[in-house]
């Protein structure tokens, strides 16, 4: 009897699938009745893609690599399906199914489950969330779907996917960002660290400004966080001006305080090693006298 090794599916999914129902079995004839809970071989042509699949992007190069691996080693982890009349609906394992088709297989090893639509959605979402190469937006959308469609609270969701509530919250907050920023996260143009920094701003225009700065200038997460702090304290225009002048927030604050004190524009010129100069312009002799009095000259 050929043994098919089970792989860890994660705490939440394992509980849903019920390990006791995943007992291994000998390969049945394809025309025989397939018993739910057993590992069986079903025709790929009979497998219908999961209508609840939360994942939409599949890397073609990665699929080709998995396909070659399946040709050489066979399918290590069976897909999971449920019987629906004369066909099987995919619960989890669409990437494995696609790669098996590319490998030219006509049959595929599968766990045959009995599951209603709610269970099917939840199992598909949990299996999807636990993938290592899932981008942050896909994870966030899966979390949101589990909350909305499976009627879960954040704490319950955390238990299902073995993550704490703060992690769940951080992912869900990404969905508050404008679509263009979400697309940048999805396409790996910016990291989740950049996104968390941008979320420090409530105004969409400010968020888009920082996003553009990160993309166009290749700002690190730390630099993005500094820019966000500057905007929070002095606004976009002053932050842009300070950046153009090469003045840090701390020096910008001193510059602004001096300008307020002398009622005129004050400029700090700061060199790399901390040396520099303060320029206080005046428009007349009377204006100079006023400034000197303020300096107790």
Automatic annotation (TrEMBL):
Gene Ontology molecular functions: DNA binding
Origin, by domain of life?
Bacteria
SMART domains, per database record: ParB
Q: Does the keyword DNA-binding apply?
A: yes
Question: Do you know which Pfam families this protein is assigned to?
Answer: HTH_ParB (PF17762), ParB_C (PF23552), ParB_N (PF02195)
Q: Name one GO biological process term.
A: chromosome segregation
UniProt keywords, alphabetically? Chromosome partition, DNA-binding
Any one cellular-component term (Gene Ontology): chromosome
DNA-binding recorded as keyword: yes
Q: Which residues form the ParB-like N-terminal domain?
A: 40-129
Cited InterPro entries: Chromosome_partition/occlusion, HTH_ParB/Spo0J, ParB/RepB/Spo0J, ParB/Sulfiredoxin_sf, ParB_dimer_C, ParB_N
Protein family according to the UniProt entry: Belongs to the ParB family.
Q: What is this protein called?
A: ParB/RepB/Spo0J family partition protein
The species this protein was found in: Arcticibacter tournemirensis
């Amino acid at each position: 009897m050929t043994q098919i090794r089970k792989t860890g599916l994660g705490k939440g999914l394992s509980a849903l699938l019920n390990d006791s129902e995943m007992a291994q079995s000998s390969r049945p004839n394809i025309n025989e009745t397939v018993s739910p809970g057993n590992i069986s071989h079903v025709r790929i042509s009979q497998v219908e893609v999961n209508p609840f699949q939360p994942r939409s992007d599949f890397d073609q190069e990665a699929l080709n690599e998995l396909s070659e691996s399946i040709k050489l080693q066979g399918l290590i982890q069976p897909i999971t399906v449920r019987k629906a009349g004369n066909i099987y609906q995919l619960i989890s394992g669409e990437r494995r199914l696609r790669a098996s088709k590319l490998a030219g297989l006509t049959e595929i090893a599968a766990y045959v489950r009995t599951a209603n639509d709610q269970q099917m959605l939840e199992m598909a979402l949990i299996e999807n969330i636990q993938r290592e190469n899932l981008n942050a937006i896909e994870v966030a959308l899966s979390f949101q779907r589990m909350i909305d469609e499976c009627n879960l609270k954040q704490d319950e969701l955390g238990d299902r996917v073995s993550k704490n509530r703060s992690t769940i919250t951080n992912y869900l907050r990404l969905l508050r960002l404008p679509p263009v920023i979400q697309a940048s996260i999805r396409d790996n143009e910016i990291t989740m660290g950049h996104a968390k920094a941008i979320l420090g701003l409530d105004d969409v225009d400010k968020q888009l400004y920082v996003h553009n700065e990160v993309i166009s200038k290749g700002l690190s997460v730390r630099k993005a966080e500094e820019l966000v702090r500057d905007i929070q304290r002095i606004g976009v225009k002053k932050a842009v001006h300070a950046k153009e002048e090469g003045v840090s927030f701390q020096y910008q604050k001193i510059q602004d305080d001096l300008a307020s004190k002398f009622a005129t524009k004050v400029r700090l010129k700061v060199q790399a090693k901390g040396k520099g100069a303060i320029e206080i312009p005046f428009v007349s002799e009377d204006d100079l006298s006023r400034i000197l009095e303020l300096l107790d000259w």
